[in-house]
Structure formats: structure tokens, C-alpha cells
Specification:
204 residues, alpha+beta, five-stranded antiparallel β-sheet
Length: 204
Amino acid sequence: MAQTGRVAVAVFVASMLMIGGCARKAANPPKPAAQNSAVPLPEWAPKNPSPEFLRANCVLQPVPAEFWREYAQGETGMQAMLKRYFLALPAAYEFFGTLSDEQIERFRSTRVVRTPVRLLTPKQRAAFETWLDVYQKAMKGTTLGEDDFLVFLYKCGARKDFSNVEVGFDAQAGNAVQIKCWVRQPDGKTREPSTLVATMPLRR
């Protein structure tokens, strides 16, 4: 790949991997857990994936490993960054896997699903908080970890009890699936920090 091409790809991927800026009935129901084993697992999947991970894997399609290898080959800095990033992906998938059938159907049809943090089920809240912790530890000491996602949420105006925050998944801007938070400001506007989870939102 030409140097300019590699730089362009790296910039694109970095912009998708880094915490997003502080700006501004489905035909195919989710597959039951019994069918999860038929769906290929990504290379970074945990050795013993949870039912939530497998459930998410039936809906989300990760970036092909060949794509990562092509532009990261020989660039130790990018390889190290991707290795850290992949450490956080299983927790993101597990969070997605806690969504209800209705929420997953809504995501399939509208490419977005969001819920006030205070209305998350105990399992969803635990999965969200686990992902926050895993992401912080994975990115600590990198340019992506200068502010962990939790601190970033607070900087975007989130209250300590998250009473003004919605969280969910968004794929409306192309095919990039993101964990996104909608932080309501005192003036009624919303800031939307996010992180990349997958590229193709739906498996066919």
C-alpha cells in the first residue's frame, strides 16, 4: 500500500477508534443462542465466549482481520494499539448481547438503540460499567487513554449518577457500529461521545 494510502487508512481508523467528538418491526429477529455456534467467531473472541458475546456475534460483524493486518504490518505502534483495542471489544459485544429482543430488532431496523442509563436492567448496567472499566484499562497510557471514557463523559457534562445520560448503539453514520452516549446539556442540546465496536451492523 502506498504511504499516502496507509496514512489515509490509519487516520480513518484512528478517527473511528478514538473517542468521538463532543459535538452535537424488523424482518429478521435475533437468532436464538442455540444457533450461535454456526456463526464464525472473530480472531479476538475470548476462549470461552459468554452467551451475551455469542448473541451479539450473530448481529455484529467485525472488521475483517485481513484489513487490520494489511495496514498495520510492520508498524509496531499501530499493532500495539490494535492489540489493546481488541482487549476491549469482547466487553462491548457482551454489552450489546444484554439488549432485549425488542431492542435488537429496533437496532436492525433503525440502526440505533438508546436507553436512559437509569432505565437499564441490572444486567445491562453491569455490562456497561464492565465495558467502561475494561476500555479504561486497555487504553491506559495510550493517546486514546489520556481521558478514559468515563472521565470523558463527565467532561461532556454527564452527571455523576448518569441521570442525564442515555447509552446504546448507533450505526446511522455508514456501517460503523459504535457504543454511544447521549449527554443532555442544561440548554437542552446533546453531546454524543462514542467508540467503535464493529463495521457491518447486520449479519445476513
